[in-house]
Write a structure and sequence with these properties.
Blueprint (H helix, E strand, L loop, with lengths): L5 H31 E3 L7 E2 L2 H8 L1 H34 L4 H13 L2 H13 L9 H25 L3 H9 L4 H30 L2 H6 L7 H9 L5 H29 L1
Antiparallel strand pairs: 1-2
Helix pairs in contact: 1-11, 2-11, 3-6, 3-8, 3-10, 4-6, 5-6, 6-8, 7-8, 8-11, 10-11
């Protein structure tokens, strides 16, 4: 560290740990305690129970929401990675297009997600592709949001590719498609898996844009949590469902992280 004094260094470390706990650990701890609370009137819950989880899984819509969230995240992540990879490779072949491609993929990050949801709702409510009221408009919203996250690590990995491997494969008679499958994509595998992890985490937790476009028949876990807690009635059941959401997302991310380490 830049701080040479041991006492000052320990103080800085203690402050950093306290800030990390307050920003990251405390909210998760509060949600976890809320999911186990039967009542809460003080600093800690007055009673501990698993009844909130029993009540959540006793509802018919919970398993459907889990399936909807996983299906939406998997499909949107796959589409976003395919789009981001194609755009990054295209910008590599045509360097003049790279600023345009980067700006297009970064635009959803600069625009609030509620504005993105409204724009998608307006664009697909009428016209040649009316998707309003269908599952497909939810998928479009997720793809738009997670594509920006997918593009950044993939574009950085594409920029580091060594063209000599591709030229050697082409000189040995490999077609362009075979070079892509056997030379380019294997080099991009760690970045693709990292992008998949980021996209999955964002998609599993997306709420604002989806609220604008989701039909009543397609309820993801964030929508289910919001509907439970929006009026302050089922707070503890909503916390239990939020813990389920965090657990599923964590399992998926750990699996992708293991794949990333193997690929690296």
């Amino acid at each position: 560290m830049l701080v040479r004094s041991a006492a000052v260094r320990r103080t800085v470390q203690a402050i950093a740990i306290a800030l990390l706990l307050a920003v990251f650990a405390l909210p998760f701890g509060a949600v976890l305690l809320g999911s186990l609370a039967s009542s809460w009137s003080g600093a800690l819950p007055s009673g501990i129970t698993l009844g909130n989880f029993v009540a959540v899984f006793g509802e018919s819509g919970t398993l459907g929401a889990v399936g909807a969230s996983l299906a939406t995240a998997v499909v949107a992540t796959a589409i976003a990675i395919a789009l981001a990879t194609s755009a990054a490779l295209g910008a590599r072949a045509l360097p003049r297009l790279r600023p345009v491609v980067d700006a297009a993929f970064l635009l959803p990050v600069a625009v609030p997600s509620v504005a993105i949801g409204l724009a998608i709702l307006i664009a697909f409510s009428t016209g040649p592709v009316p998707l309003n009221g269908t599952v497909w408009i939810v998928l479009v919203a997720h793809v738009v949001l997670v594509s920006a996250i997918a593009h950044q690590p993939i574009a950085a990995a594409v920029a580091r590719l060594d063209r000599r491997y591709e030229e050697s494969a082409a000189a040995l008679g490999a077609s362009g498609f075979r070079v892509l499958l056997t030379v380019v994509l294997p080099q991009l595998r760690p970045a693709l898996i990292a992008a998949a992890a980021l996209c999955t985490a964002l998609s599993m937790g997306e709420l604002t844009a989806v609220m604008m476009v989701a039909p009543p028949t397609w309820r993801t876990l964030p929508l289910q949590v919001f509907s439970m807690t929006s009026r302050g009635i089922h707070l503890y059941e909503g916390a239990a469902l939020a813990v389920v959401l965090m657990g599923i997302t964590l399992v998926v991310l750990l699996g992708l992280g293991r794949l990333a380490r193997r690929a690296a």
